[in-house]
Amino acid sequence: MSYASDLRLVLNGRDFRRLFATRLVSALSDGVFQVGVAGYVLFSPEQEATAAEAAATAAVLLLPYSVLGPFAGVFIDRWRRRQILVYAPLIRAVALVCTAALLVYGHGGAPFLLAALVVLGVNRFFLSALSAGLPHVVGRDELITANAVSVTSGTMAAFAGAGVGYLLRLVFGADRHGTALVLVSAAVAYVVTSAIATTLGRDLLGPELRVARPETREAVRRVLRGLADGARHVRERRSAALALGAIGVHRFLYGITTIMTVLLFRNYFTDSAQAGMGGFALAVVVSGVGYFLAAVITPIVTERIRKEVWITAQLAFAAVAEVALAAPFSPVPFIVGGFVLGIAAQGVKLCVDTIVQTTIADAYRGRVFSFYDMIFNGLYVAGFAVAAAILPPTGKSYAALAVIGCGYALGAAGYWLGAKNTRAEVLSV
């Protein structure tokens, strides 16, 4: 079915509509918030962004997902999930108002980033509660459709929120007072999210508190053991290990590319912070179009060729495109390169997800995906750290571009050599 028909199907359920609305408004708020934070730190006329500042800001936006992600389930299986959906946005709203106050009074450094980290850390629990509560509002037969619709719509809402945040930044200004107003706007949207969540029944989303569960400390230890078990299980499944290695290489290089893009638009392509923000926003949107196109063409292509072939092709494609389109260090080719890299990024991820799902035993799948999540975000942040060390303030570096291009080429060759004989393993599981 098409996305529109899937959406009509699941929206027949009243409780799903309420949970869906909670997700959408929250994602919209997240987009506004992230533009406010990144815009101030990286594209404020009051300060010049360095590679280290860009890397630190990007890391703050991702670390809660890397560190807290595997442990969120421990708590959402103990607290009423509907209450998490009600109170988490309120906590984020209060944190944002405090963050805005810090800016107004001139505290825009570490305290500002720490407050942003709190907002994102709380959001990790909110998103986990949304996912865990979904089976309580749709039937088993509709769960896959509902999950796909929810995640896709949430991503689209976050992009829309980023656009709203950008427009608010134009209205309120790019200085610290304008940024404070953008953050307060996001706080208001979080309060609306909480209000929508109150329309859900208090016990509707679970968990089943009557079910016996281990003590929290023991549950946390189990998470740590589970991550280690997942890593060991992956090591025994060559297809999955190679696939995770491929996406790890991509995420590391993508991290370097992300910081390079920020610095180029902030300090090299444009002569003002406002113009730089506009150029970077356009690059993000164009990259998002690439992600969407990959989601359309990857299932079609992988019906005709092996996923291993498509992963190799996408990594090789990224190597060529990165050098050919980025080497002129001109805005238009660079934005086109972002579109191409978006296609490659999503194409690789969709294939890796499927390979992991089909080669990992069901009893280990959750632990392996937790391990996968840490690789996915952790190596992206590692790329930020390397970018901070090797990139100049302008972001223009042929040496860094060579590292990225050669890295993708070596990743493609290494993956192909390792994965070309794994077909029997994939088909036999």
Task: Please tell me about this protein's structure.
The chain has 429 residues and is an all-alpha fold. It has two domains: 1-213, MFS general substrate transporter like domains (Growth Hormone, Chain: A); 238-422, MFS general substrate transporter like domains (Growth Hormone, Chain: A, Up-down Bundle). The chain has helices at 3-10, 14-43, 51-67, 69-76, 81-104, 110-133, 143-172, 176-197, 216-235, 238-267, 273-301, 307-326, 331-359, 362-390, 398-419, 423-428. The longest helix is centred in the N-terminal third of the chain and has 30 residues, at 14-43. Residues 424-429 have low confidence and may be disordered.
Layout of helices and strands, plus pairs?
Elements: H1 3-10, H2 14-43, H3 51-67, H4 69-76, H5 81-104, H6 110-133, H7 143-172, H8 176-197, H9 216-235, H10 238-267, H11 273-301, H12 307-326, H13 331-359, H14 362-390, H15 398-419, H16 423-428
Helix pairs in contact: 2-3, 2-7, 2-8, 3-6, 3-10, 3-14, 4-6, 4-9, 5-6, 5-8, 7-8, 7-11, 9-14, 10-11, 10-13, 10-14, 10-15, 11-13, 12-13, 12-15
What's this model, at a glance?
The chain has 16 helices and no strands.
Terminal residue distance: 27 Å
- Helix content percent band: over 70%
Mean pLDDT score: 81
> What is the count of distinct domains?
2
Count every beta strand, where a strand is a DSSP E run of 2 or more residues: 0
Strand content: under 5%
Query: Could you list the spans in which at least 5 consecutive residues all have pLDDT below 50?
Result: 424-429
CATH topology of the largest domain: Growth Hormone, Chain: A
Order of helices and strands: HHHHHHHHHHHHHHHH
What class, by secondary structure content? Answer: mainly alpha
